[in-house]
Design goal:
mainly alpha, globular, disordered C terminus
Length: 302
């Protein structure tokens, strides 16, 4: 079993920033999908992110492991972290309302706890953490609007696709613990490169990327999604995985829709109602509970 030290203020700031970055793709994906097919869109997103990260790796002169075990592991990480979730979410969002998609995709902490309880036993599951799972999920429902769940079951294939994507994301948070000795930007670059290697050929097989005429809005959304939300987001993700573990990182699933609503309230002028405010408080409590642990050395292996 692996336990991590108590998160500090910087860790929570990084977690909040990751929630902001990964809350952006909900809207950006919708805009990009208007004129770009889903597989081509995802392939372009991970390719742009990989290029940006390798430039950053070169700038920092970070050490890149070239062992067969690392390449194999990072390829698997790319499949379960990017290829499966991004493709399934892009497919699901074609039929599932954004609010319901946000609720279904926020269940990552629950799946991480289930994986740990049933299989890996990699982190301690305290009653406080289980309470955090429930409170955080309830907060997401309140933030997105309870009406979002009323459509549950109406677009079953799309909903199942998003649930499968969420489980794959949870699995990737558990699997990614092994990269603690590699610089976060290197792991992120390798993960996204692996995803691009898998997705670019598939996009040419199932779609016709060279024949599409994407709009300017779709291209801008794709670029922002790839370079900012994905590249920077994954560098933060692997940094936090080393610091606060898979359950702590998974709690970002509750922050993504919360930041999406805050962005809408700030930029679009949507009202900040009492249910939304209460939901934001519940999300904060859930994230804090999932990240709560006694003070220990940062990493203890047994």
């Amino acid at each position: 079993m692996t336990e991590f030290g108590k998160p500090n203020t910087t860790d929570f700031v990084c977690l909040a920033l990751l929630g902001l970055l990964w809350g952006m793709p909900y809207a950006l994906t919708k805009i990009a999908l208007a004129t770009i097919p889903p597989v081509t869109m995802v392939a372009g997103r991970v390719s742009l992110a990989a290029i940006a990260l390798w430039l950053f790796v070169a700038f920092r002169d970070s050490r890149v492991p070239l062992s067969r075990s690392f390449i194999t592991s990072v390829f698997i990480q790319g499949i379960i972290t990017c290829v499966i979730p991004y493709t399934l979410i892009a497919f699901g969002q074609r039929s599932v309302d954004s609010a319901l998609a946000a609720v279904l995709n926020s269940a990552t902490p629950f799946f991480v706890c289930v994986i740990s309880f049933v299989w890996t036993r990699h982190e301690t599951l305290t009653p406080r953490r289980w309470l955090g799972v429930g409170v955080g999920l309830a907060g997401v429902v309140m933030v997105t609007g309870a009406s979002a769940t009323l459509g549950l079951g109406r677009t079953l294939p799309g909903e199942l696709a998003i649930i499968a994507a969420t489980f794959s994301s949870a699995l990737s948070a558990v699997y990614g613990r092994q990269f603690t000795d590699v610089a976060p930007e290197v792991t992120a670059a390798g993960t996204l490169t692996s995803a691009a290697v898998a997705l670019v050929p598939v996009s040419f097989l199932v779609e016709t990327p060279l024949d599409i005429t994407p709009s300017a809005a779709s291209l801008v959304a794709l670029a922002v999604n790839g370079v900012i939300a994905t590249a920077l987001g994954f560098a933060l993700y692997f940094h936090l995985l080393r610091r606060i573990g898979s359950m702590g990182v998974a709690s970002v699933g509750y922050l993504k829709p919360a930041f999406g609503v805050l962005i809408a309230c700030t930029l679009v002028g949507e009202p900040l109602t009492w249910p939304v405010t209460s939901g934001l408080v519940a999300v904060s409590v859930g994230v804090a509970a999932l990240n709560h642990r006694a003070s220990k050395p940062r990493l203890i292996r047994a």
